[in-house]
Each structure stands twice: as structure tokens, then as C-alpha cells.
Amino acid sequence: MLAGLAPLIVLACLLSGLVAAAWQTRRWLQGAPARVARLQGLIAMPGRYLVDVHQVVARRPRNARFHALAAGGLLASLALWCVLAVPPLRYRPLWGVLALVLALMLMGAISVWRRRQVDRPVELSGGGFDRLPLALLLYAGGFLVLALAELFTGPAATLFSSLGLIVGTFGLAGIISLAIGGPLKHAINGMLHLAFHPRPARFVGGKRDTGLVPLDLASARLGVERPVDFAWNRLLGFDACVQCGRCEQVCPAYAAEQPLNPKKFIQDLAMALAPGASDDAYAGHGHPGQALGSAHGGPGEPLIGAMISDATLWSCTTCRACVHECPMMIEHVDAMVDLRRFQTLELAALPGKAALVLEDLRLTDTLSGRGPGARLDWAVDLRIPLMREVMEAPVLLWLGEAAFDLRAQRTLRALVRLLRQAGVVFATLGPEELDCGDTARRLGDEATFQDLAGRNIATLSRYRFDRIVTADPHSLHVLKNEYPAFGGGYEVVHHTTFLAGLIERGVFGPLSPDGRKVTYHDPCYLGRYNGETAAPRALLDALGLERVEMERSGLRSQCCGGGGGATLTDIPGKRRIPDIRMAQATETGAAVIAVACPTCTVMLEGVTGKRPEVLDVAELLWQAVERGGIAAARSGMPA
Amino acid sequence: MTGLAIVVLLSLGRHPATGRPRRNPDDARALATALALAATRSGSRVLAVHAGDPRAPVLRDYLGQGLDELTVLDMPSGSDPLPSLREHLVALSPDLLLTGQRAENGEASGLLPYLLAEALGMTLVPGVVGLDLQGDQGRFTQALPRGRRRQIEARLPLAATIPAGTAGLPLPSFAAARRGRIVSLPALASPDPHLVAIERQPWRQLPRPQPRRLKGSAIDRLKSMTGGGEAKGRLLVDPDPETAAAQILDRLGEIGLIRASHQSVTSRDTDGRTER
After folding, report:
1. Are residues A106 and A225 part of one domain?
2. What is the domain-level CATH number for residue A401?
């Protein structure tokens, strides 16, 4: 009988695998130092895996099932092997337990095989991943036979037992070889990445942690030039990528066939961890329009240029769809911005109009180049009180760059009238309001961002207000999530949240129902960045609109193409992102696409042809209030 | 090929919307041209010079274009930079002097490059948008009105100015701006005789001119608004200097910039010099 031999063979294999895996850690340990609460992370890791990772994986129940069976079965069987290796603990019924576990794992392995061979999703990578099902099947099948045979005695049992041992050992060897630098490395790196994650706050009770990490402008090298400039736990994250391709499926730039595939981007970073790296071995979709096999680099070599093209870097809209979908919890956008910081601050190499706009921003504190003095030009007739005159107000209305855009000014006018109608006492900074710095920061210009943030915070500290209300989710994100690192802590509320609260209190009186069919487009910086998807919908429902959802909505909404300075870098693709989004809106048959962000408004309204009307939620509400014929709506309100 | 000594003159500009100090965009492009040129010829040096306040923070933006060092001839604002610059540049004896066509501040007459070129005994090529050097022989693309271009060949040493409104402004790199050094040299602070002499008036709002009702077809109206109509005057290709000078004087007389109606070629010549 092989009862004594089998566990020892398995453990020997496992031990050699562990040694090899430990040797692999040098790949990511060559990164820059990072401050990580290691012990707390290791303690929190199982919880992060079972709760946070599961929430992502469970969006595809079939994947969750096969992963639970295959991975759970493998881990459980390895634990059982450890017990079986100790002779006094080797009770015969344990072989039955092992057989049960392996049977479950075999079901999972069959499911993995079916997914790889029968109904294979296009976003999956090939290469080593294609050898994975066989290794799992051999391991589970072979050792299942062995475990069952161990329950019996006799020559037939011995024969089956030996056969099972041979087959299972082959499978195990395959599994271990795939765990060393192959697809199964995600098992080890993934666990460690969860433990030492660069954003531990995102695992705390459904909290979001989306603000960018400030860059120390006094450091010798600004941003990331080479793989080793990334912190080691970031490299660990890239190396944990399992190439499932969920990011590829949701990336707006990839859909528009701009040269960015987030999966390939992370793989580029991971592959560059080995000296003399190239993307020859990569067996998935590449960056659209770029042939595979041409990228080359190494841990100490510059990434942008040889390994990753600059067009790839500047295609990203920072919409965070990839981050939201990633079951390995990789932070793609952080990596993107780290690389951009080096390109912008060290090399000043930005494509398109980005450089000119950043120069205007530095010289005028506005992206439009018109200067803050012109920020209230559209509102001369509305006579909005200025903070420097009133010194305090319950609501500070943050106008943002929308104040310079003719289309977005209509939204702001509707919002101002609604606030008046509701009797809200508010004021703006007017000419004292500088650009919040969102675009500069996403384009990697941390210096200009920190300068603007510092001056805005100094201005805000002079006045007393309870909360900031803004119609621009980008301003909302920056003021709420990114200014605290520079000493500004405010309650910042999006106008849809604020207006929904007013409606709930009934301040607008009866609203005339609007029979139109509407679909709501979630702005990335409101939904994924700040988790607000309910208030705008509640508001639309209160208006009596017939609300239908697009194919992608809520936290999984698709970007309009306007974030992250993408309109300025303007990397060409085969399609335009807003056209793709508008097609999804048109598909719903809605007459109106409701928006809640000035950038989305501009991007979607730029779509030509027959399409739903683009209206901000505030505009729809103001229409309803006006139609409601409330006399007070017009009295005392300049046209 | 030996290295070149390229001097770039950099002034402070003003942003048109906010009035904040900025790089003079033409000077910034001149600097970019100089740095690109120096990169193609080994052993070349770019000697950047500013006349004014060495503490002006915007000067760092020039360093951010990739300049290691910027020499500032320290002088209070309102000083005439010409004497100090002349003295400094004569000592440097550059192969090539590059600068923007005119300043955005102060007198902004655009005369400084001409006066310096004269003092250094250099040829001046104005409005250069393209530059190709072979040995000490330069081939320049010069921008003429209405988008016309002209090829000019000239021998070093020479001066060239970069015209307004050519390709985009290079963004300064924050890191390079931080690394670069500003070297301040004490300079002669002579008051600008012109700025002293001129009469100053307070700014006043002029009545806005009534828009003229334009006649003709859409294309005619467009032409008259954009100045894209028929070219007036005559185009002389390779005229002899006498004919060219006579034409220039005729034109100056026509638009009332000189009073003397010219009779002979010799008197025109003297008139032309005194009027410059």
C-alpha cells in the first residue's frame, strides 16, 4: 500500500514548490520601500479574501463556483495530505474525506476545463493558462483514485493506488510548475497582495478609497520611470494578475480601440520585472493597434517607450472600471498616474493639447485660460452672493470649470434657480475659486495640483460654511477625497444628493409628472469614485419619469470618455467612447439621457445623429418645477 | 563639425488674460530651437541670457525646458537692457543668437535683436520657423505674411528671431526647473531713454467702432474680414538693392511714416538711415 508513500511524495513536491515560490518573491521585492502594516494585513487577509474578493468574483456566479471548488478543493486536499503524512494520524476514514474533497475539486477542474476548451470567453489569456485544466484534472483525478483505493485492500486496490499516485503526482508537478512564474502564481501573490495591499482602507466595511496618494515633490525622482520605482507592494499586485480579462471587457479605451488594454498594461508591468523582458510569451489580447512581441524592458529600464507606448499611457480616462472589476484588487489607475507623473514632471512629455492646457492652468488657475475673474460671467443677472462679501453661508456652491462652458452654464443656472426656489442660503467663491486641480493631477502634474489645492484650501479656510455643494463630480472627488491630505476637510455633497434631499423634505411642492422615458448615465467620479448611485435615481423617480437602465449602470457604468484629461491627450482610436456610451443609451429607447456631470454632458452631447436628449438632473428638476406652475418659481427670479 | 556657441535671449512675458508673468512664448520657442540644435551638434553650448530681476520665479520655467543654467544680468525694471546685453554678448562672441521677435512687456518694439546684431556685426534673419545648419552654412525657412515661406541661406555667425504664433509652447518640466541654476551678474542699470522721454497718458476707453456692414458674397465678406483678399502692392523677386530701397521708401511715404518726398536715390538712402 502507498498510504505512507503518497503523502510524503506530495509534501516533498509541495516543499520544493514553496522553495521555488520563495525564490520568486525577488521579482517584486526589488521595488521601492513601502510602509505596510504587515501583521495587521496578514491577519485581515482571510477576511479580505472571503468578503471583498468574493464580492467581485460573485458577479459571475459560475466563476465563483468553479474557483471555490478547484481552489478550495486543492487547499483542503493539501491540508489533508499534511495530516496523512503523520503516521499516528493516518486514520483510514481520512482517505474517504480526501476522496470527497478531491471529487469536489474534480468537479471544479472539469468546470475549468469546460470554460477553457468548450465555451471559452474571448478575454481569457492562453499560454500557461491553457495547461492549467489538465494539471488540475490529473491531480484531482489521480489522487481521487488513490484515495478511494486506500479505502480497500487487495491487489486491485494496490494497482489503482499506484496508478493514481503516478497520475496525481504528474498533476501536482504540473500545478507546481504553473505556480512558479505561471498562471497559478496568483494563488501566492494574490494572498500576499491582499495582505500588503497599497490601499488597505478599501477593505474596511464597504468604504471607498479612491483619492490619489500625494507625491512628495521634494523626492529625487518624481513619479515612476522604471519598474523598480514602484513600491514593492504595487509590483506584487501587478505580479498577482490572473489575466482574467475582466478589465479588458469594461475598459472604455479598449472598446474604442485606443491602444490600451488594461490587462496587457498590468502584464507589461509584471513582465518587465524580469531582466531582458519581452512580451513574446504573453498570450492574450494586446493593446489595440500594437503588435505583440515588440515590447522589451527590464526592472531597471524605463517603462514608457520600449515596454509601454506613451499612447497607451495617455489613453486612460481614469474611470476605475478596471479597478472595480479586478478580482485581484489591482490598482490600475494608481499605476497609470504614477507613470504619468514621471512623464509630466520630469520629461514634460504630454501629447495633444494637454501641455498647452496645463500651461494655461499654471498661468490663469483655470483650464479655459480665461482666469478666475471670468468665472461668474454667465451669472451676472443671477447676482449670486460672494463669500468674500457675506463671509458665511450654510452652503458654498463650488462652480468648477463648468462655469466656463456654455452648455454646463445652463445646468448651473438651473441649479442656482432650484436653490433659490428651495430657499437655500448659499454663496460662491466667484473670482476667488481656482480650478480644483483634478485634470492636472490625473495628467500627472502633481506640482500644479498641490499648488492649486494649497491656495484653494487657504481661501476656503477664511469662510464659514456647513457644506460644499457642487454639480461637478470631479470637483466633488478632489475636494472631498484628495484635499484632506493637504489640510482641507469638508463635507462635500453632489448637487443630485443635495437636491434629492430637498425633494424628500418636500420643499419643491408637487412636481408636475414628466411622462418621458429616461435613462441615467452614472458619472465615474460620482459612482465608482464616491459610491453615489441612489440619489440621482431617487430624484428622477420623484419626477415621475419612466426610468430604464442601460446595459451598464450604477457602479459598473461606462465612462463617457472625458475623464483623466483624455479629451486633451486625445489619443486616436477606431471609435469614440461617447459614441459607444450613447449607443447603449439609445438601445434603451429612452427619450432623455440624464447626466450629472459637466464633462459627461459635453462628451455625450457631442454625439451626432439621432440620439436621446442630454439633460442634467438639475435641468430636469427645474423643468418639472417650472411646469408645476408654482408661482414662487418665477417671482423674484430674474429670467 | 565643431560645437556651436548659441546665445538665447529670454524675456519675461505677460499672460493676456490674467496679466501674470509668464515666459515670452516666442523666446520659449527660440530656446527650444536652440536646445534642439545643440543636441544635434556635439560640444555645443546654449548660453541663455535674461536682463532683469534674477528672483523672478517665472525664469524657472525656462530652466524647465531643459536648460542647465540661465545667466541674468541683474537690473531693475525699466532699465535699458541694450548696453549690458551688448557688452555681455560681445564677450561671448556667439555663433548664433536666437530670440523671440519681440517682448511682451516694456517697449516691445522688436528692435533689440536688430541693434544687438548690428553691435555684434551679425546678419539678422527675422521670422525664422525652420533652421538647418551644415557646417557654418545655415539654411533658414522664413515666415512671410499669409502663410508664405521663403528659404534663405546665410553664413554663421548670425542672429535669428522666432516669430509669434508658431507651433505650440513647450511645457516646462517641474524637475528640470528645480534642477537648473540661475546665475546672477551685476549689470549696468541705465534708464531706458525712450521710456524716460515718452509722454504717458492714463488709459481711457475708446468708443467701440461700429461694425461695418459688409457687402458682397459670403466669400468676399470672409476675405475682407480675414484680410485674405487680393494682395496689394507688387511682389519683387530678387530685386537689385537700389530698386528694393526705392520701393520701401515709396511705401513708407505712402503710409505717411516719412515726410521727405524722395527725389534721388542718394537722398533716399540717407533718409532711410536717419528714419530707422
Report:
1. no
2. 3.40.50
**What's the complex ipTM?**
0.85
Q: Of A503, A520, A542, which residue is a domain's last? A: A503
Q: What is the pLDDT of residue A526?
A: 97
Instruction: Find, in chain B, the residue whose alpha carbon is nearest to that of A446.
Output: B174
Residues A397 and A541 in one domain: no
Instruction: Give the CATH fold of the B5-192 domain.
Output: Rossmann fold (3.40.50)
Is residue A498 included in any domain, yes or no?
Answer: yes
Listed residue (A377, A397, A333) closest to A529, CA to CA: A333
Residue of A219, A359, A432 to mutate for B, most B C-beta atoms under 10 A:
A359
Looking at residue B263, its pLDDT comes to: 46
Instruction: Spell out which residues of chain A touch residue B65, defining contact as CB-CB under 8 Å.
Output: 348
pLDDT, tens digit, 9 for 90 and up, residues B43-78:
899 999 999 999 999 999 999 999 999 999 999 887
pLDDT in tens, A473-518: 999 999 999 999 999 999 999 999 999 999 999 888 777 777 899 9
**Residue A290 and residue A402 in one domain:** no
A355 touches chain B (CB under 8 A): yes
Answer yes or no: do B173 and A447 touch at CB < 8 A: no
Residues A517 and A559 in one domain: yes
Residue B266: per-residue pLDDT: 42
Pairing of strands A517-520, A546-548: parallel
Residue A242 has a CB neighbour count (10 Å cut-off) of 22
Contact across the interface for A348 and B169, Cβ inside 8 Å: no
CA distance A359 to A536: 35
**Alpha-carbon radius of gyration of chain B:** 21
Kindly state the cell numbers that stand for B151: 528659404
- Residue A623's domain comprises 510-634
Mutate: best of B63, B173, B178, partner A, most A CBs <10 A: B173
pLDDT at residue A1 is higher than 70: no
Taking CA A484 as the corner, what is the angle to CA A481 and CA A487, rounded to the nearest 5 degrees?
160
Domain locations along chain B: 5-192, 234-275
pLDDT of amino acid B271: 39
DSSP B257: S
The answer to whether position A354 is within a domain reads no
Amino acid identity for residue A178 in this structure: L
Mean pLDDT of chain B: 85
Tell me: pLDDT of B273 over 80: no
pLDDT band at B257 (very low <50, low <70, confident <90, very high): confident
CATH number at residue A341: 1.10.1060
Task: Find the helix or strand (DSSP H, E) in which B52 lies.
Answer: strand B45-52
Q: How far is B119 from chain A (nearest CA, A)?
A: 36
pLDDT at residue B269 in the model: 40
